[in-house]
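Deliverable D2.4 — example input (C-alpha cells):
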C-alpha cells in the first residue's frame, strides 16, 4: 500500500507543478517541460498502482519491468523496427503518397477523374484493413512487400483527397490574375496552386504517418517472416510475455511520434508564411 500512497502523493505534487507551469508565461522550454513532467507522472502512477495492488505482470507489467525487457532485447527490437517501419511502413508511405500526389495533379486537370475517382476513393478508404490485409499477403507474399502494399492502400486516398483540396484552395481573383498574365497550367501550378496547397499536402502527409505504421503492424498479424513488430506482438501475446509486447508498443509509439514530428518540422520550415505557423 505504501507504493499506492507514494504514487498518489507524487501525482498531486506533479499536478500542482504542472498547473503552475501551464498558467505561467509560455516559453519553448515550458512547452516541452509540461508534457514531459505529465508523462513521467503517469509512469510513476502506473508503477505505484501495479506494485501497490499486486497486479499480475501477465495482466499489466510495471514500467520498470518493461524498461528492463526493452534494454535486454535491443537487437530483437531493432530488427523488428527495420522490418516493420523501414521496409514496410516507410516504403509503402513513400510509394503511396508519391502516387497520390501525382494522381491529384491529374485529377485537378480532369473533371472526369474528379467526378469518377474521388467517390471511388471514399469507398476504398472505408474498406476495413482487417479484410484487405490477408488478401494482399496472399498476393505479394509474407515478406515486407505485402505490408508495403497494405500501407499504399491505406495512405493513397487520404493523401489524394487532401492534395486535391489544396490544389483547389485558391480563390477566383488569384486564378484570374494568373490568366491575365497568360500563365500556362504548369506555371500556375508551380507559382500558385502548389504553394497554396502545401498546408493541405502536409496535413495529408502527417495523417498518413500514423496510418502507415498501423497498416504495416496490422498486416503482419496475417503472415510475416520471423521478425517484425506485428509478428512479435502476436507471438509474445501467445506466450503471455506482456513485457515484450509493451516493449514493442513503446518502439512503435516512439517511431510514430518521431515520424510525425519530423514531418511537422518540415512543414514548419516550408510553410512559415502560413497563418497557422505564426503562433
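Example output (designed residues):
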Amino acid at each position: 500500500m505504501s507504493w499506492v500512497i507514494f504514487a498518489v502523493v507524487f501525482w498531486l505534487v506533479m499536478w500542482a507543478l504542472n498547473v503552475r507551469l501551464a498558467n505561467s508565461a509560455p516559453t519553448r522550454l515550458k512547452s516541452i517541460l509540461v508534457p514531459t513532467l505529465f508523462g513521467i507522472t503517469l509512469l510513476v502512477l502506473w508503477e505505484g498502482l501495479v506494485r501497490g495492488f499486486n497486479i499480475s505482470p501477465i495482466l499489466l507489467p510495471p514500467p520498470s519491468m518493461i524498461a528492463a525487457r526493452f534494454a535486454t532485447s535491443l537487437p530483437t527490437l531493432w530488427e523488428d523496427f527495420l522490418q516493420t517501419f523501414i521496409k514496410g511502413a516507410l516504403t509503402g508511405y513513400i510509394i503511396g503518397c508519391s502516387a497520390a500526389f501525382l494522381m491529384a495533379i491529374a485529377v485537378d486537370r480532369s473533371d472526369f477523374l474528379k467526378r469518377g475517382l474521388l467517390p471511388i476513393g471514399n469507398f476504398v478508404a472505408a474498406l476495413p484493413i482487417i479484410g484487405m490485409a490477408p488478401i494482399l499477403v496472399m498476393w505479394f507474399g509474407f515478406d515486407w512487400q505485402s505490408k508495403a502494399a497494405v500501407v499504399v492502400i491505406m495512405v493513397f486516398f487520404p493523401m489524394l483527397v487532401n492534395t486535391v483540396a489544396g490544389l483547389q484552395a485558391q480563390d477566383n481573383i488569384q486564378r484570374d490574375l494568373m490568366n491575365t498574365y497568360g500563365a500556362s497550367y504548369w506555371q500556375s501550378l508551380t507559382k500558385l496552386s502548389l504553394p497554396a496547397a502545401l498546408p493541405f499536402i502536409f496535413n495529408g502527409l502527417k495523417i498518413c504517418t500514423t496510418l502507415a505504421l498501423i497498416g504495416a503492424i496490422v498486416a503482419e498479424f496475417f503472415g510475416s517472416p520471423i521478425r517484425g513488430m506485428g509478428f512479435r506482438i502476436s507471438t509474445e501475446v501467445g506466450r503471455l510475455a506482456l513485457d515484450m509486447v509493451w516493449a514493442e508498443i513503446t518502439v512503435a509509439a516512439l517511431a510514430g511520434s518521431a515520424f510525425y514530428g519530423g514531418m511537422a518540422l518540415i512543414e514548419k520550415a516550408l510553410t512559415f508564411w502560413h497563418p497557422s505557423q505564426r503562433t
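Residues 70-277 form a domain with the MetI-like fold fold (CATH 1.10.3720.10).
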